[in-house]
Specification:
Structural class: alpha/beta
Strand content: 15-25%
Shape: elongated
Radius of gyration: 23 Å
Strand order of the largest sheet: 6-11-10-9-8-7
Low-confidence stretches: 1-41
Mean pLDDT: 88
Largest sheet: 6 strands, parallel
Oligomer: single chain
Number of helices: 11
CATH architecture of the largest domain: Alpha-Beta Barrel
Order of helices and strands: HHEEHEEEHEHEHHEHEHEHEHE
């Protein structure tokens, strides 16, 4: 089966991307509750092979899959086996297409049948794949296959949890660059499979003004430094590159918007650790800005128990590094059901 992110979930089945310059900004006539809408599309397919094949090779080498002393001593090379991959806890599966990629490197005689798609919501006890071939090969690739599928399914499941809670109000749930080194393309794919959206993929995708940039460039943080940085980036960077600005209070928010002037539509203003009442005040302030307006994003302090309240403030986006850096692996096992000479 091919990938179909969010294909069977009943919420947010059409991921969107608000990273395009001048993407849909809030309508001045829109009500003061509910999210400020975005509507551009976002690619949801598995990354190209160059996004994961080297990682799979490194994982197999790390595990010395070709040198499994237990399997070599116990399992005759002529024996074949059939195994099932079973999801032991409910969640959103992701990484199933990597099963064939892993086993293709272990032994090309292994055959894989997928019984679910990436992005499907799966109940506990569901068989999502069958694997047949040389018994020794199934054993040598078992841990590597499970590491990929469990990790990516955990990210997709954590994302889906936040998406479901935010669904009533409608802001997009975004990841960050806080990813496992080497895993970024796959982990961001898992976020999409969970119904979330991707922040910039890397440092060349967009500009982002944070405290460290301000101190490094100007020796100080604050409104004046933010205004200078915004004007400089707008002048130096092509129109296709968006500018993210992290602000910590209303004064810094006003400085960023006023510095951008008619180019405010290129800004994504990140409200860092704002209290709920301050977020609502910022959204009200934004609705008074003439188009094109910047987009607002909540960042910092985003947890499952706060997501509904944060989503109800009317922002465009909510970002959370926890989607990738803290998601627990989904409990999945590979069980050999039969073997023969």
């Amino acid at each position: 089966m091919g990938a179909s992110p969010a294909g069977r979930r009943q919420y947010d089945a059409s991921p969107v991307n608000t990273d395009a310059p001048n993407a849909d900004a809030p309508n001045a006539d829109a009500p003061n509750t509910g999210a400020l809408s975005d509507d551009a599309s976002e690619e949801g397919d598995l990354p190209g092979a160059d996004g994961y094949m080297d990682l799979i090779r490194a994982a197999l080498a790390e595990d010395h899959a070709a040198d499994d002393v237990t399997t070599a001593a116990l399992v005759d090379a002529t024996r074949t086996a059939r195994a099932e991959m079973i999801v032991k806890a409910p969640g959103v599966v992701c990484g199933l297409q990597l099963i064939e990629a892993v086993y293709g490197l272990v032994d090309p005689d292994v055959r894989v049948e997928l019984l679910a798609d990436d992005g499907d919501t799966i109940g506990a006890g569901t068989v999502v794949a069958r694997v047949e071939g040389p018994a020794a090969a199934l054993l040598r690739g078992e841990r590597t296959v499970l590491n990929f599928v469990q990790r990516l399914s955990g990210v997709a499941t954590r994302t889906a949890d936040l998406v479901e809670l935010a669904m009533a109000s409608g802001p997009g749930i975004y990841d960050t660059r806080k990813t496992t080194p080497g895993w970024r393309a796959l982990e961001k794919y898992a976020v999409r499979c969970g119904g979330g959206h991707n922040h910039r993929m890397h440092l060349a995708d967009a500009a982002m003004i944070k405290e460290n940039h301000l101190v490094a460039a100007y020796g100080a943080t604050g409104s004046a430094s933010i205004a200078t940085a915004v004007r400089t980036l707008l002048a130096k960077l092509p129109a296709g590159i968006d500018i993210y600005v992290e602000v910590e209070n209303g004064e810094e928010l006003d400085a960023a918007i006023e510095a951008a002037e008619a180019q405010a539509g290129r800004l994504v203003i990140m409200l860092d650790d704002f209290e709920l009442e301050d977020i609502r005040a910022a959204v009200a302030r934004l609705r008074r800005v003439p188009p094109p307006r910047p987009r607002f994003e909540i960042t910092g302090g985003v947890t499952l128990d706060r997501i509904e309240a944060l989503a109800s403030t009317g922002v465009h986006r909510i970002s959370s590094g926890a989607l990738t850096h803290s998601a627990p692996a989904l409990d999945i096992s590979l069980k050999i059901r039969s073997a023969q000479p």
